[in-house]
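Blinded run. Sample ID left blank on purpose so nobody reads anything into the name before looking at the predicted structure. Input follows.
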Amino acid sequence: MSQKETLSFQTEIKQLLHLMIHALYSNKEIFLRELISNASDAADKLRFEALSHPELLGSDTELKVIVEYDKHAHTVSIIDNGIGMSREEVIKNLGTIAQSGTKEFLSRLTGDQSKDAHLIGQFGVGFYSAFIVANRVTVKTLKAGLPKTEAVEWTSHGEGEYTIETIEKDSRGTEVILHLREDDTEFLDGYRLRHIIKKYSDHLTLPIYMKKEVHGDAKPSDELEKVNEATALWTLPKSEISTEQYQEFYKYLAHDYENPLTWSHNRVEGKQEYISLLYIPAHAPFDLYTREKPYGLKLYVKRVFIMDDAAAFLPNYLRFVKGVLDSSDLPLNISREILQSNRTVESIKNALTKRVLDMLEKMAKDNAEDYKKFWQAFGNALKEGVVEDIPNKENVAKLLRFASTHTNAPEQNVSLDDYISRMKADQDKIYFITGDSFSATKNSPHLEIFRQKNIEVLLLTDRIDEWVVSHLTEYQGKALQSVMKADLQLDTPEEKTEEKKAEIEKVLSAMKTALGERVKEVKVSHRLTESPACLVIDENDLNPHLKRMLQQAGQFVPENKPILEVNPAHPLVAQLEGLIDTPNFQTWTDILFEQAILAEGGTLPDPADFVRKVNALLEKAK
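Blinded prediction complete.
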C-alpha cells in the first residue's frame, strides 16, 4: 500500500539550501562531484555489509554508478547500486541535519555571498548541492535486503517542504534525478559531464559509467562505457599522480571546495604494510571543537572499504587531518572496538602521528604563509597535543606559535625556538603572561621591568593557554615562567631591595592591616617601574585568569589570596607614609588594591564603592 506524505524541512535545512543556491553560483559543477561521492559512499557501505551478509549483493556484484542525461526532459540522473535507504533513513538523511553546532554555524552567516561561500566549505556541501542547478530533485531508493515494494520516492523543490512516498523499485540502490533550471542546461551535454567526472572523480575506486555518445545524434546510445580510471589513487606510485589529482581527491574525500595546504603520500613495507595519504586542510570545519563529532581517516583493508572516521589511527588533537589508510595487516572484519586494542593499530598510529608532525614542521620551515593559515585554523587544536601526547610533547611544542612583546602585534607568529634565539645571555627562563586579550596582556603592569630590561615576554590570550602552560613547564631545557608569580627572579640587587623595604616597612605593615584577609602579604615590588601596585600569586596558587575562567564555567575554585606588591618609588606610595594615622590611609590603600585587580582584568566585588572612593579623593584635590 502506497504511503505518501508531505513533510517540512528542518529550519536549518531551509537556511542551508538558501545558502547553497545563492552562495555557490560560481562553482555549480561541484554538484556532480558531491552526488557521485555519495554514491561511492553507498557502494562502500554495501561492500562492507556484504562481508558478513553476502546475500545483500545477490547477483548484482559489480558496484558502480551511472550518470545519465535527457535533453528533452531537462534531467541529469545519478544512479548507483549501493546500500540504498529505508523510509526512515530518507527522512533522517534528507530532511534533517543531525550535526551538533549546526544552529551556531548558521548564525554566523552574514548575507554577504562571497563570505558565506567560504563558510559553506566549513560545513560541507553534500546532497543539497543538487539544488544549485535543479529546481526539483527526485530521489528513488531501495535499501539492500528490503523487498522491492518498500522502495521510497522523495521529491522536493528545495524550499520549505518535501514529499515522500512508498513505491516499487526492482533493484537496490539510489537514483537521484535533477530537473535542471533553465539557466543550467549546459549540464545536458555528455562531453561536459565527462569532463567534470574526469576532473573530480577520476580516481574513485567505484567505476562511473555513461552511455556512449553517438556522433551526429542528439541522443546517447544504450552502450555503457567507463568514464573514470576507477583505480584507487592512493595505490598508484606518486610519480604517476599530478598535483591536481591529489587536490581533487582531497575535495572528494573531505567534501571541501578549497585545496588542501599540503599532503603526504607514503607506502610502508616490511614488518607492517600499509599506504597512507594524509591531507592538511586550509580551513577548519565549523564543528572542530564539538567533542562528539566523529573524526578520523577513511580505512581500507586490502583495498576494501571498512569504515569512515576511523579515529584510532590519529590522536584527538590531530582530528583536523583528512586522508586514507589502506592496511594489508588488519582483518577485514575489524570493528571500532577491536581497533582500540590492536597492537598493529597502535604502531600505525604512532607512525602516522610523527608523519603529520613532520609535515607541519616542514610547512612551517618552507612555507611560512601556509603555516600561518594552518595556525589560524587549527592552532588551538594542536595545542591540546602538549597535554594529550606526552611522547611527542617536545615536537608539538616546537610547532606552537604565540604573540609576543617582541613584535607588539596580536598575530601569533613567534615560536619557542624564535624566543630562545633572542634570549639574553644570562637569561635561563622563557617568560609568559596570560590574560583575556592582547591589549590587556601587552599593557599589564607585570611587564614593566621586562620592558625596561628589554626582555621578551610571550602574550598568551587563548582560553586553552592556561591549560597548556600548566603542562608545558619547560622547552629545550628552559623553564617556562609566568611573570605573575611572586618568586620572579628579576629583582634589583638584594641590598637595594632590602633598603627599599626598610624605608617603607611601616607603610607595608599598615597596608596589610588595612587590607586584612583580602591579601596574603604586602611587599616591595621589584617588577614595577611605572605603576604604584600589582597583584602576584604564590608558585602553587591558581593564576587569576584561570581562576576567572573556571568560575565562569561553574567550577569550584579553591580560595587563594593574592600578594600585593607596591612600588616604593611611585609618588602615590611615597605619600602613604604621611597618611598612616589618617582616615584617608584606608581609602588610598583600598584604591591601590582595587586598581591592581582591574589592571589584571579582574572584577571588583563593588564597583560603585570604588567609584565613590575615587570621586571623594578627586573632590578633596580641588
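Unblinding after everyone has recorded impressions. The chain has four domains: 4-230, 238-366, 401-482, 494-540+554-620.
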